[in-house]
Amino acid sequence: xxRLAVIFGMVVALVGFMTLAANAAPMLSGDISFGxxxxxxxQGSSTPLDLGNNTGFNFSVGTNAVVSTGTxxxxxxxxxxxxxxxxxxxxxxxxxxxxxxxxTELWTFTAGGNTYSLLMLTGTxxxxxxxxxxxxxxxxxxxxxPGFAPTSGTFIFxxxxxxxxxxxxxxxGVPAVPEPATLLLLGAGLTGLGLIRxxxxxx
Length: 203
Fold this sequence. Notes:
Blueprint: H1 2-23, E1 30-36, E2 40-43, E3 56-59, E4 65-70, E5 84-87, E6 90-91, E7 104-111, E8 114-120, E9 124-125, E10 133-143, E11 151-161, E12 166-174, H2 180-202
Antiparallel strand pairs: 1-4, 1-12, 2-3, 3-6, 4-5, 5-7, 7-8, 8-10, 9-10, 10-11, 11-12
Helix pairs in contact: 1-2
């Protein structure tokens, strides 16, 4: 009777978990990249075009980039559709392990009646920074889309300079989320392993 009660408790817990997974808001998945056409200046740089020692970027007001490619949930945002994007000005501290202040917004855009915003959480400066190139990569969260849960992912921001101009591009990716059926199979497998282990101990 005790064993039956334990098994029943596991089944109830498993059904409850499956119900929560089925009712949870879905998460976005895919990759998205941007190309710039706006103007920006450097923060903290002694030379206007020197990316070797700047500590931030000041972007132009309004739309300053477009979606260049997209996959998954972002597949319809790229060419031939011109989806305008606004990159926010931001600062970073190259002396810290995490150069980004958490929850700093990197970009936002509206497509299909929804507004997508990427908040940077962590960031590191890629090795090989020079006066003509700097790359920051880290973790981020995509939020603000009705019907979807805030989704964790990664981002890369890269800026390059020439003698007369600055350009930048960026991409972000969010992982695919397991379907409820996959979670159910995983839970059932773990439950079965637990029962087998319990029987072996009693034997």
